[in-house]
């Protein structure tokens, strides 16, 4: 299984049935492929609750998600103004926001909207979701295209919010914020503790269960 698919599948396993879930652009949108659509309610900030996939022959060019990708509407779906959608987010009515990231630091802060020196499209709804959603789940490759770590001690890119991410899922590992820092709780694919240590500059702890499985750092 390719890295992005592995991330999306693992993220789907972290969701509670009947949750209201907002999927960000990129890997987060792939999470929907691993969900039973009857048991989860997908939300998009441009004003639809009940997002589902759509076959190519049924695409409505006016029916898109926040990333302007075509979507379908589940039975019982509802439409509303984008202002109402953001009121829903800011009011704490979204259970989980699944977002991508450029960097995440040891304090749990997320940078996902701007790279210094490059054109900026805009922050979109990310800052509202980071503040308003009950749970924040980050899905991202463990390192960037140039091999530099994405999980760093302190973000060097502009942060999106001071709200910390609850869970980080990469193509190599799962980290959870427990008490006062991130704990490496799962290794994915063929990843090892040594590989994670080499590709992560943020401080973190390793869960006892990984040591019990005989892994070494």
Principal-axes geometry comes out as globular
Taken in chain order, the helices and strands follow as HEHEEEHEEEHEEEEEHEH
Termini distance?
Answer: 25 Å
Estimate what percentage of residues fall within beta strands: 25-35%
Query: CATH-wise, what's the superfamily?
Result: Glutaconate Coenzyme A-transferase
What is the average of the pLDDT values? 92
- What integer value in Å does the Rg equal? 17 Å
Q: Biggest sheet: strands, sense, closure?
A: 10 strands, mixed
Number of domains: 1
Query: Number of helix segments?
Result: 6
Overall strand count: 13
Specify the CATH architecture: 3-Layer(aba) Sandwich
- Helix content, binned percent: 10-25%
Q: Strand arrangement, largest sheet? A: 4-3-2-1-5-8-10-11-12-13
The CATH topology assignment is Glutaconate Coenzyme A-transferase
CATH class, please?
Answer: Alpha Beta
Instruction: List low-pLDDT spans.
Output: none
Which structural class should the secondary elements be placed in? alpha/beta
Write up this protein:
It is a single chain. This protein starts with a helix and ends in a 5-residue tail after the last helix. Helix 2 (27-30) links the parallel strand 1 (20-23) and strand 2. The chain is an alpha/beta fold. It has one domain (3-212): Glutaconate Coenzyme A-transferase. The protein has helices at residues 3-12, 27-30, 82-90, 126-132, 193-198, 208-212; strands spanning 20-23, 41-44, 48-52, 72-79, 96-99, 103-105, 110-111, 135-139, 151-152, 167-169, 173-178, 181-187, 205-206. The relative contact order is 0.15. 19% of the residues lie in helices and 25% in strands. The strands form two sheets. Strands 4-3-2-1-5-8-10-11-12-13 form a ten-stranded mixed β-sheet, sandwiched between helices. The protein has a three-stranded mixed β-sheet with strand order 7-6-9, with no helix packed on it.
């Amino acid at each position: 299984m390719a890295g992005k698919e592995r991330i999306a599948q693992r993220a789907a396993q972290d969701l509670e049935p009947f949750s209201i879930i907002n999927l960000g652009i990129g890997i987060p949108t792939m999470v929907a492929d691993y969900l039973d659509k009857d048991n989860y309610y997908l939300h998009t900030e441009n004003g639809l609750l009940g997002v589902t996939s759509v076959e190519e022959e049924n695409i409505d060019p006016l029916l898109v998600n926040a990333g302007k990708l075509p979507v379908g509407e589940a039975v019982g779906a509802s439409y509303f103004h984008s202002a109402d959608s953001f009121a829903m987010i800011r009011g704490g009515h979204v259970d989980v926001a699944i977002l991508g990231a450029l960097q995440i630091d040891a304090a749990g802060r997320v940078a996902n909207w701007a790279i210094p020196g490059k054109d900026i499209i805009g922050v979109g709804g990310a800052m509202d979701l980071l503040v308003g959603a009950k749970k924040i789940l980050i899905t991202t490759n463990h390192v960037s295209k140039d091999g530099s770590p994405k999980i760093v001690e302190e973000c060097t890119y502009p942060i999106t919010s001071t709200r910390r991410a609850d869970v980080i899922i990469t193509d190599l590992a799962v980290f959870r914020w427990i008490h006062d820092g991130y704990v490496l709780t799962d290794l994915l694919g063929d990843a090892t503790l040594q590989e994670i240590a080499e590709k992560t500059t943020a401080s973190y702890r390793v869960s006892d269960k990984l040591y019990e499985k005989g892994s070494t750092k």
